Amino acid sequence: MTRPQSADGADATASAGPLQEADDLTELQAIVRRVVGARVGTHPAAEDLVQETLTRVLAAAPSVDPGLLEPYAIVTAKNLVASMWRDDARKRRNQHRAADLRVPESPEAQALLGEERSAMASALGRLDEHERALLIEHELRGTDTRTIAEEEGTTPGAVAARLSRSRARLRVEYVLGLESGDPPTDRCRPVLLALSAADRRRQRELDAATHLFSCDFCGRLSEPLLARGQRQDGVLRIPVAADPDIVKARGSARELAGRLGFSRTDLTVLATAVSELCRNIVRFAGSGELLVELLDEPRPGVRVTARDRGPGIADLEAAMRDGVSTYGGLGLGLPGVRRLMDEFAISSEQGAGTTVTITIWGKDPST
Amino acid sequence: MSILRQGSTLIASVHTALDDSELERFRTDLVAQIGEHRSRGVIIDVAALDVIDSFAALTLRTIAEMARLRGARTVIVGIQPEVAFTMVRLGMGTGSIPTALDLEEGLALLTGGVDDGRRRP
Amino acid sequence: MTQTTPGQHLLSELVAHLREHRTRLREEWAERIQQAHLLAAMTPQEMAAETTSVYDNYVEVLETGSVEALQHYARDLSERIIPRGVETHEVVGIVLLLRDVLARSLFEKYQRDFGLLNQVLDAYEPAANRIANTVAVSFVDERERVIRQQQDAIRELSTPVLPVRERLLILPIIGVLDSDRARQLTEQLLAGIRRHRARVVVIDITGAPDVDVAVANHLVQTVDASRLMGASVIITGLSPKIAQTLVTIGVDLSKMNTIGDLQGGLEEAERLLGYAVTKKEDATLS
Ligand SMILES: [Zn+2]
């Protein structure tokens, strides 16, 4: 039978993220450097702190209103400096432990675990009954959104949206629970909620930028709220330069996505798309890299960015046209990759390289 | 990968993911053996592959075509459900190469001599 | 921010120390596990065997820097203990206990030389945290896998794929199909083909009022994917309207095995399977 045309392929767009302008980055970097410099001077870790801050800001960029980037960068830098001092303090405590070997058992990590558990319990307590019941049903009992929707006579989409809001609330209450004392102003909680929910419109409405500048409390809490998308071990950077890298890269992407509980089909689809993108890098650009990120809003997903500094694609439109499937011509396998993925974006500049970003969202197998 | 001979049939099994150059070597080895043994049938067992991307699919098609030119029929067996699903969405089939569920079915298909898998139970 | 890489000799010294005192340290650790009432579901013999393995794996990670073997073992261990109700905090707890038992033995050994002690701890702590993290992640992964498996088993029960006789499946499609459901049906059908070793599949769409272009694409993909698994597909109950949709998206209907109704489809299926067909010649076969 003949190959049917794609009916559901997303548009290929040359995209520019909120922070892709090199100028923005340079400006932010200068600000961050000033903030860090003012606090740690010429401490050897200063540059690490600057880079770490920028990494976190870049990761949070999709969730915050562009006007908020600068204040966010500043509070993040402050937080990181503070946590570095804390780490040093911990080392000093260890020395004490070394001197007195009969310090009682309970390892501090466990105390910390206990603290986190009680913060979680009190956060759950602060949600209204309905939100709590929903989260417990879905997150703890594992009831899927469709079943919940059926029970409540609504749609899985509506349940997912409510779950997402409840999770955002829970995160806010959780970080508040780890702090001692209530937020200093009435505005704090709504601002934190807008950050947690990655609701950029609401962030603007509340003028979250100004608030972050003036409120140390929210400054401290904004980072853990926005950092949720980038779990520490949820980002993978894979250099791609030769044939064996293709197999390695798709294996790593599959393994990382496996942590999200993706179905075998989704894992296979992802691994296959990664394979195609890596092959393009090896064949047409020689080398490049792959960035694999785990996403968790609005539902679990994986985003893969394939970047190279190769010759670029002269005719993007032709490259995206279906039906060309042999190497040598324009057959880059890109239309196939687009069909496999939920989201697809490509930008390419002749002589400068190509960047392809693909996203796949976990399918709730029962909806 | 391993290549076994059973009568006039060659059974080639892929055991782990292969990169492109390994796939090419696989193709060369297999086609050479088809000629050497004057095989009439070739079964390629891909059950262990968790990804069959455009290049792997193309390689399988090329092997089948080269086998055909040497007078042998090729059957691909063991394509996993997720892999089959992904291959068609990617737009990569195995062309007109016969396929079968597994080795046993593949052998039945070759010895049965018909290409739609019909035979008496 | 970044951890300084420790001198390799420090790590080897550390590893030698942990090997030398293996019996004592492992026993101390097991005792602390017991005191903390962790892993109460295990017998003393099991506890001894598992703690020995974990200990050896732990030291191996410190020595080689590779967590692969540990990861493997942790998954395996998780698989065995999850059905017995062991919780995540217990697993994390025992690894943290081991971390601290070992750290204390390092304090003891190096307490006279603070500078060296700090270096040893700098080498040990990141590795120890990485180990704890690895074990925890493996456990959580495994637990999620088990939960998923259970959910799959439940879904299986409601699977719409009907095995009518050996090697023959029917997939009746009833009601409105959207892309999600079409995709789900495809996945279930493909899994069903493997499970039942099906050679022929009859997809009956008599009960589907209408399909849009996206769903029609799915249908075509389902036919292709089934074929890749070695099964032939017969489509029955194709309404003129759906046939039109298929043609619109470029499907060559003459290459699809379509039969008017389910009865005819089943007869064709049996013919393909080689069963005797007692009915008169069927002229509608393609
Ligand atoms: Zn505030």
TrEMBL record, chain A:
One of its GO terms (biological process) is DNA-templated transcription initiation. CDD domains: HATPase_RsbT-like. Belongs to the sigma-70 factor family. ECF subfamily. It holds the Pfam family Sigma70_r4_2. The keyword Transmembrane helix does not apply. One of its GO terms (molecular function) is DNA binding. The keyword Iron does not apply. InterPro entries: HATPase_C_sf, HATPase_dom, RNA_pol_sigma-70-like, RNA_pol_sigma-70_dom, RNA_pol_sigma70_r2, RNA_pol_sigma70_r4_t2, RNA_pol_sigma_r2, RNA_pol_sigma_r3/r4-like. Keywords: DNA-binding, Kinase, Sigma factor, Transcription, Transcription regulation, Transferase. Residues 1-21 are annotated as: Disordered. Residues 1-17 have a biased composition (Low complexity). This is Serine/threonine-protein kinase RsbT.
UniProtKB/TrEMBL annotation, chain B:
It comes from the Bacteria. This is RsbT antagonist protein RsbS. SUPFAM superfamilies: SpoIIaa-like (SSF52091). Pfam families: STAS. InterPro entries: Bact_StressResp_Reg, STAS_dom, STAS_dom_sf. Residues 1-110 form the STAS domain.
From TrEMBL, chain C:
Coiled coil: none annotated. It comes from the Bacteria. Transmembrane segments: none annotated. Residues 158-269 form the STAS domain. Keywords: Phosphoprotein. The keyword Glycoprotein does not apply. Gene3D superfamilies: STAS domain (3.30.750.24). PANTHER family: RSBT ANTAGONIST PROTEIN RSBS-RELATED (PTHR33745), RSBT CO-ANTAGONIST PROTEIN RSBRC (PTHR33745:SF3). This is RsbT co-antagonist protein RsbR. It comes from Humibacillus xanthopallidus. The lineage of its organism: Bacteria, Bacillati, Actinomycetota, Actinomycetes, Micrococcales.
